[in-house]
Structure formats: C-alpha cells, structure tokens
Amino acid sequence: MYRTSGNKMFELAAYELMSANDAPERDPMDWVLEGSNDKGISWRVLDNRTSQFFEERFQRREFLINSESFQANLFRFRFLAVRDVHSNSRLQLGSIDLYAKTM
Fold first, then answer.
1. At 90, which CATH number?
2. Which one of 23, 71, 77, 101 is most buried, counting C-beta atoms within 10 A?
3. If we measure between CA atoms, which residue out of 78, 97, 89 comes closest to residue 25?
4. Spatial CB neighbours of 42, under 8 Å, sequence gap ≥ 6
5. Digit-coded pLDDT (tens) for 44-99
6. Would you say which domain of life the source belongs to (predicted)?
7. Number of C-beta neighbours around residue 83 at 10 A
C-alpha cells in the first residue's frame, strides 16, 4: 500500500512497473490498481490490466490511467496472476513508480 504524506489528495495520471533481475515466470501479468480517499475503508478501481508481459529484465513499462477523475491519498495494487502461474506463485518486481497529475 502506498500512503501519501498527510491528507493531501492526488489524482494519478500514470504509473510504471519495472521487471526484476531474474525469473520471468514471476513477473506480474494481471493486476488492479486502486485508490482510497477515506483511509482505506472503500476502494475505487483506477486501472485494471490483464495479460501483460515484460520482454526483458529491468524493463520499465508505463501505464496511463484512463479512468474517471478520482483524487485519493492511499493507493494499492492487487496482483492477481504472475506470468507462469503453473510453475510459480511468487511475484517479483524491480520497482513501482506512481505519477500524479499536476494541478
């Protein structure tokens, strides 16, 4: 979960995920990004991705958020599947970066 400083609200414009250094089968494939503006009591889906693949190690991929405008100060990812769910249930990521719209 990513908590912003204080009660300041942000509207996300995009985010980046970076694949890690080993085991491509552990890369995320399906996920949901959610935001909350009430301390995590309720969550709103900001982005939902399926069948995503990283072709290289340490590859950065940017995902634009096209959902309806929503300001939040708490964000979370729910990773639903990895690249090869039959051989591995572990997840690996090199990094996650969130980008807010400028106001």
1. 2.60.120.260
2. 77
3. 89
4. 36
5. 999 999 999 999 999 999 999 998 899 999 999 999 999 997 887 799 999 999 99
6. Eukaryota
7. 21
